[in-house]
Design goal:
Number of helices: 10
CATH superfamily of one domain: Tetracycline Repressor, domain 2
Strand content: under 5%
CATH architecture of one domain: Orthogonal Bundle
Radius of gyration: 27 Å
CATH class of one domain: Mainly Alpha
Strand order of the largest sheet: 1-2
Oligomer: single chain
Length: about 230
């Protein structure tokens, strides 16, 4: 705000020249379409992380963004569309980090450590995004759920395990189930770590890799349950 102070030479009074009405009422610059879209995504992302999909409403998104409900519908067609874009971005961020960790083949142990750290890095740097992925998703939606994300990660780990199993003389047909077990173990531990920061990130990764690697290196070629009679 422009304020000009002028001294009155006759009586020492001070006059304050305030901005004229036109300057005070000048409207703020309107957001462009892409800027408004990003604003709505940021608002929706925070609400989905804090409250989940079901508890978030279009009215609340519009209110937080200081727009009318039709603006939200114009950009995303509704809450489901907004959620889908938010989740897709989180999936790409998570998968991008894990894919980068698995790019350079340096042995199964190193890749396991890198993949574990990549997931924990994502949880640490973007807890809100991780909470969105592990929260509820719209009924009937088959993609975008945390289970589907883990499935994509497991598919990247599967071929690495298959190569390791082949070298050890273990049936490679069991690689998919072991890939899902490993990814699920890391993901579930990551959820616990997000709420209970009792260990440093590298300590969590070290314990995970210790259990996973030593378990894999001691695999039986034909595992059986001791409590179930052999058929």
């Amino acid at each position: 705000m422009r304020v000009v102070v002028v001294a009155d030479g006759q009586n020492g009074a001070v006059n304050v020249d305030r901005p004229d009405r036109a300057e005070r009422s000048r409207p703020r610059a309107r957001m462009t379409g892409p800027e408004r879209r990003e604003q709505l995504l940021a608002v929706g992302r925070k609400l989905f992380a804090d409250k989940g999909f079901e508890a978030t409403t279009v009215e609340e998104v519009a209110s937080k963004a200081s727009v009318s409900k039709p603006v939200v519908y114009e950009h995303f067609g509704g809450k489901e569309g907004l959620y889908a874009v938010v989740v897709d971005r989180e999936i790409q961020a998570l998968l991008g980090g894990i894919s980068a960790a698995l790019e350079e083949p340096e042995g199964a142990r190193v890749l396991l450590e890198r993949a574990t750290m990549a997931l924990l890095d994502y949880i640490e740097s973007d807890p809100a995004g991780f909470r969105i992925l592990v929260r509820d998703s719209p009924p009937g939606q088959s993609t975008g759920s945390f289970a589907s994300v883990l499935g994509e990660v497991a598919s990247q780990v599967e071929h690495l395990l298959a190569a390791e199993f082949k070298q050890r003389g273990i049936d490679t047909k069991s690689a998919p189930i072991h890939a899902h077990m490993l990814v699920g173990m890391v993901a579930l531990t990551g959820q616990w770590w997000l709420d209970h920061r009792k260990f440093k990130k590298d300590q969590v990764a070290a314990h995970l890799v210790n259990l996973a690697w030593n378990g894999l290196s001691g695999l039986d070629q034909a595992p059986r349950l001791v409590t179930v009679p052999h058929r």
